[in-house]
Design brief:
Layout lengths: L11 E4 L6 H12 L2 E4 H9 L3 H8 L1 H18 L3 E4 L8 H10 L2 E5 L2 H9 L12 H15 L4 E4 L5 H15 L6
Parallel strand pairs: 1-3, 1-4, 2-3, 4-5
Helix pairs in contact: 1-8, 2-4, 3-4, 4-5
The structure holds adenosine-5'-diphosphate, shikimate-3-phosphate (S3P) and magnesium ion.
Length: 182
Amino acid sequence: MVPGHSEWKRNLLLVGFMGAGKTTLGGILSKRCRLDFVDTDQLITEQFGLSVADIFSRYGENAFRVAETELLRNLAARCRHSVIATGGGMVLKDENWRVMRQIGPVVFLRADEQELVERLSSATGRPLADDSDREAILERYRQRLPCYLRADLVVETKNQAPLEVVDAILGGLERVNPKWLF
Ligand SMILES: Nc1ncnc2c1ncn2[C@@H]1O[C@H](COP(=O)(O)OP(=O)(O)O)[C@@H](O)[C@H]1O
Ligand SMILES: O=C(O)C1=C[C@@H](OP(=O)(O)O)[C@@H](O)[C@H](O)C1
Ligand SMILES: [Mg+2]
């Protein structure tokens, strides 16, 4: 077991910037490996009965961040055999990292800056990206990069189709720790 990780629970977590593909690839990976799929944004929106954008506008970003940490703690207590797609800001708190390490290996989906900007400009529902211009998005991404790089494995997604990324995640995990077989 890699230092800092507790017992192997057959979970893995995906982290990365908005638009990197955590939700999309997490769904594909979970089916491929016959694991459950958890998306933290989805559980939080169900809990509030509101979209992420509405949670931000009604209660503020901090309320969303508190809900993220609380949810992560719940997942640490009960989650087994699951792929967990996190929201892009989950990596911002040290406390979240402490809990993620209890849940399982953390995989950073590193996306190309241009691809991120294109994906985010053609989508809505992300309050931290919706009104931002290209430079503001990239500035946020670059500021967060050291947080994402705390992951156990970095998977490059540039020019990779979703199925290729899934293969890269599985191959990479096995290389880092052969016990992490799904
Ligand atoms: N490897 C990829 N190749 C092509 N499109 C992708 C890839 N990964 C994600 N996408 C697309 O990018 C958009 C954002 O993906 P999403 O899974 O919601 O990202 P995240 O959960 O990291 O914010 C979706 O439209 C998705 O289909
Ligand atoms: O990066 C962020 O701070 C956020 C990312 C979003 O999730 P995705 O990364 O799945 O878009 C969502 O949690 C919220 O809008 C905040
Ligand atoms: Mg997502």
